Amino acid sequence: MNDTAVTTTPDGRTIGGVLMEMKHITLRFGGVEAIKDISFDIREGEIRAIIGPNGAGKSSMLNIISGFYVPQEGEVWFRGVKRPPMKPFQVAKLGIARTFQNIALFDGMSVLDNVMTGRLTHMSSGLFGQALWWGHAQAEEVENRAKVERIIDFLEIQNIRKTPVARLPYGLKKRVELARALAAEPSLLLLDEPMAGMNVEEKEDMSRFILDVNDEFGTTIALIEHDMGVVMDISDRVVVMDYGKKIGDGTPDEVRANQDVIDAYLGVAHD
Amino acid sequence: MPDTLLFAIEVTLNGLMAGVLYALVALGFVLIFKASGVFNYAQGVMALFAALTLVGIMEGQVPFGHLLNVIFGTELTTFGWTLPSVVGILLTMGVMVVLAILIEKLILKHLVNQPDIILFMATIGLAYFMEGFGDLMWGSDIKKLDVGLPQGISDVIDTTTFGWFGYGFFIDKLDITATVVAALLVTVLVLFSQYTKQGRAMRAVADDHQAALSVGISLRFIWVLVWSIAGFVALVAGIMWGAKSGVQFSLSLIALKALPVLMLGGFTSIPGAIVGGLIIGVGEKLFEFFIGPMVGGATENWFAYVLALLFLVFRPQGLFGERIIERV
């Protein structure tokens, strides 16, 4: 595959050129190398998974993409341009939205308000316009509200729109977090263990939503997951990490057949 | 109606008005506490500083005049202008915004991710610094602040109530103005925080820094915004207190009265700050009126704190504060 090749998946979705490329990323915490010289790319429209055992450096990788960590070495390329070191809120403005492994919602606010915060990067009216509610501030609020309502419908959380998120059960909180990230209409959506701690039914729901989001909005998704079964079912390509190194990269079938991956997951006899 | 009852009603009304002024100061605390989890000890001093700056600007006083005179042997006192109060208030607001930016740049930025107690200590330092700085900049003498607010006993109320009850209520027009201003201020603040994108961003930052960053909110901008709003509230409180009792350094002590107000109302609730202020205002006036004579008076100095103490024992989160739920 070259950088601009457009391919079609067996189920008829279109995968475009390279959207994001990580080149030789190395991340250290003091003397510990969390990520060692890893390179991979994410193509437009695909569902890209990063998997690996605990402590493999998956979350660190996601934090680098979303700007929470700055790698010591390596380059991050986005839309064919090298990205300078950025603060997380600047990355968000580029159109990269994310969820967190340990849900990070605004507990004091309602579901609706939480999802509305996802629209902040799309609202341009200034402080005084907003404060005095004049000019296009009002029109903007109404327009954004409509978009948010569509996402709320899409994720089937209409009945809890006005509920403070602190009162919601775990599975729904995860869904609200997804809704907030989606509200930003991101060009790249990062999901940090979207199914962690869920029961089978909740996992199935979440998988369906992830596939639907990708299908309906054409959103490129990069996700981290523990559960091998789920990942293999929903992703187009998989990066496998172990101890901060990349040990496999390819379609689910290729990865499944990779001896290093099998060793990492099942253990290997040392002789 | 018996005179004592009427007098008690008058005392209650005056207490309500005094409570409004306490609430104004408490409001500034709540705003910053809600948005950043920082208890801003310097809020009272900010009110003082705002009032000093306002008087200084309106009367054309040369900032640091005394210091400059001592060093360079000059005789600077005033620029020789007198500005209208609207201009003065706008310029002072500008100064408060600059102050907010400086606080963020010089203090908050360097204390990100530190425990709340560290930030609290920093604001104590800020309070003492600003008190000294204000002194150096504008001098320590008591100043009269006149921004053209109505003042003095309202004759209308006096004569009307005299006509009704045969007893005239003495109510200061300034207190009525303060009540109206406080009501307006609270309405505007609540609308702003509930229905605008910056308000939503403020609440988001208050809840979770990481999540706020991930949806594209710049923490630094929000902090400057919050401290600017707190500066604005401080300015309003400073104007009201300054018009009532002159701009003097004991003004920073009223901040301490805001503490019992907050313990009563809850540190996280804007309505709580108002209701807490009113309860303390009325409570201490009535207590002084009924119980004061029996214990030798001057109960206003301690009543609020005892009331707050009782609240801490029975309802530590205050009347309107978020309930403290410990999950086990």
Task: Please provide a written account of the structure.
- The complex is a heterodimer of chains A (271) and B (328).
- Chain A is built from ten helices and twelve strands.
- With 271 residues, chain A is an alpha/beta fold.
- Chain A has a six-stranded mixed beta sheet with strand order 8-9-10-5-11-12, with helices on both faces.
- In chain A, α5 (136-154) packs across α6 (170-183).
- Chain A starts with 6 loop residues before the first strand and ends in a 5-residue tail after the last helix.
- The mean pLDDT of chain A is 88.
- Chain B is mainly α.
- Chain B has a domain at 34-256.
- In chain B, 70% of the residues lie in helices and 0% in strands.
- The model of chain B has no long low-confidence stretch (mean pLDDT 86).
- Classes of the chains: A alpha/beta (271), B mainly alpha (328).
- The A-B interface holds A 66, 68, 87-90, 92-93, 97-98, 100, 104-109, 113, 116-121, 123, 125, 127, 130-131, 133, 137, 141, 180-181, 184 and B 191-192, 195-201, 203-204, 206-208, 210-219, 225, 322.
Give structural attributes.
heterodimer; A: 271 residues; alpha/beta; Rossmann fold; 10 helices; 12 strands; B: 328 residues; mainly alpha; 14 helices; globular
Calculate the mean pLDDT score of chain B and round it: 86
What is the CA-based Rg of chain B, rounded? 21 Å
Mean pLDDT of chain A: 88
CA distance, first residue to last residue of chain A: 38 Å
CATH topology group of the domain at 7-95 and 186-266 in chain A: Rossmann fold
Number of helices of chain B: 14
- The CATH class label of the domain at 7-95 and 186-266 in chain A is Alpha Beta
- Main pleated sheet of chain B: none
The overall strand count of chain B is 0
Order of helices and strands of chain A: EEEEEHEEHEHHHHEHEHEEHH
Biggest sheet layout of chain A = 6 strands, mixed
Structural class of chain A: alpha/beta
Strand content of chain B: under 5%
Largest interface: A-B, 35 and 26 residues
N/C terminus separation of chain B: 57 Å
Which strand order does the major sheet of chain A show? 8-9-10-5-11-12
Our count of helices of chain A gives 10
**From the structure provided, what is the oligomeric state, counting identical versus distinct chains?**
heterodimer
Cα Rg of chain A: 19 Å
